[in-house]
Design goal:
This protein is an alpha/beta fold. It has five helices and five strands, in the order βαβαβαβαβα.
Amino acid sequence: MDGASPATIAVVDDDSRILESLGELLESRGYIVRLYGSAQSLLDSGGLETGDCLITDLGMPAMDGFELCRRLRCANPDLAVIFMTARNGLHDQERAARAGHHGFFEKPFDATAMLAAVKKAVSAAT
């Protein structure tokens, strides 16, 4: 981070191992990280403020990452979103492209590539 106040990154995934590892990775780079085990828990928390970035899993029970993105962008159309998935399908990539994103990662993902995508997304949002 370059002197400005750190961005808040929300990470949503129903896999606690992914949450913990991404949380540690992002915090080690100076980001403020909020972890959520479901899309609904993020919505119940009040959502995200302008300028923040969302990293969300696509395949979650009850509400997937696409629906979460749609709901959050109703209030914040410029929200930077990074999608991640354990599914390996062209359909998800095409849906993500239509939804607009700052990164699309299949799990397991490369930490360096994820950090680069987050940095780019945060820069675009500010």
